[in-house]
Design goal:
Layout (H helix, E strand, L loop, with lengths): L13 H16 L3 H8 L3 H8 L9 H9 L4 H13 L2 H12 L2 E6 L10 H11 L5 H14 L10 E7 H5 L5 H11 L8 E6 L12 E6 L5 E6 L4 E4 L2 H17 L3 H13 L10
Parallel strand pairs: 1-2, 2-3
Antiparallel strand pairs: 1-4, 4-5, 5-6
Length: 282
């Protein structure tokens, strides 16, 4: 059952304004969430999340809403405001490309990539990154990152390939309960039609990518863009030399990583280290 919408305030954020306008246009046109879902080919759950400010309206949903409601470029303009408000500028272009990509490859040395993170895991990261953030700010950031994961559930999703450093499995973000849930969520994605996960074990030694996060985004025209992020900054590149270097280093990391079946076994082994302790019987 759809939960009641939270109270939105247009003056509070662009995200709230987007949700308010979406609900208003639905009411004007007399469309239910079910009917709008059929028209724009997005799930009812996702539309409800956008309308209540809980999910990010990633492209191409804004274009589809403008067509459905006949609102010109209204929602596309609102998306621009939402994006500037909630995403670091260096990552804006990466988000746009991620929404359009046909192939997404990522490496995380010690932190799992955002598209793989559970809600509890990402919340812990945001809290620890800046303990002074308010609960409302944390909720907004979590909602933004969760919204990105809609790309995983498309009718025709991109091809995904993730390589995880073993440290990402061993770093106890949020404690045993959070990590066990997080690692369990990886297992169904290890080897499917559209997803591959490999783990680069500690025994693989050093590598050029071991100092941060790398994302490779390939678009329908077969062009690839590189996003590299370190502890304090991130940069996006589309020049041929940097792209070739990024692809080469990623391929090298693939060669050093465990195949999917062995990666799944290592993930399961890491999960066992997060087993809750049993109280001694009296």
């Amino acid at each position: 059952m759809t939960q009641p919408a939270r109270d939105l305030e247009a003056a509070r954020s662009a995200r709230d304004l987007y949700g308010i306008e979406l609900r208003r246009q639905r009411q004007i046109t007399g469309l239910s969430l079910d009917r709008l879902s059929d028209i724009v080919n997005y799930s009812k759950t996702h539309l409800h999340g956008v309308e209540t400010g809980e999910r990010l309206p990633l492209p191409p949903i804004s274009e589809k809403l403008d067509v459905a409601f006949g609102t010109g470029a209204l929602f596309q303009g609102l998306w621009g405001a939402v994006k500037r408000e909630h995403s670091p500028r260096r990552f804006d272009h990466c988000l746009e490309l991620e929404a359009r990509a046909v192939r997404i490859q990522a490496f995380g040395a010690s932190i799992l990539p955002g598209l793989l993170q559970t809600k509890a895991y990402m919340r812990e990261l945001f809290v620890e990154a800046d303990p002074g953030r308010s609960p409302q700010e944390i909720d907004s950031m979590v909602g933004t990152r969760l919204g990105r994961q809609e790309v995983l559930h498309r009718t025709c999703p991109p091809d995904f390939w993730w390589i995880l450093g073993e440290a990402a499995l061993r770093q106890a973000v949020g404690g045993p309960v959070v990590m066990r849930e997080q690692l369990a969520s990886l297992l169904p994605l290890v080897y499917t039609r559209h997803t591959t996960i490999q783990v680069a074990p500690f025994t693989a030694g050093a590598g050029a990518l071991m100092n941060g996060t790398l994302i490779l985004l390939t678009l329908p025209d077969n062009s690839t863009t590189v996003y590299h992020e370190g502890p304090w900054n991130g940069e996006i590149y589309d020049d041929q030399e940097t792209v070739r270097r990024g692809l080469r280093e990623y391929d090298r990391m693939k060669a050093c990583a465990l195949p999917p079946q062995e990666s799944a076994a290592l993930i399961k082994a890491a999960m066992e280290t997060y087993e809750p302790c049993e109280s001694p019987q009296s």
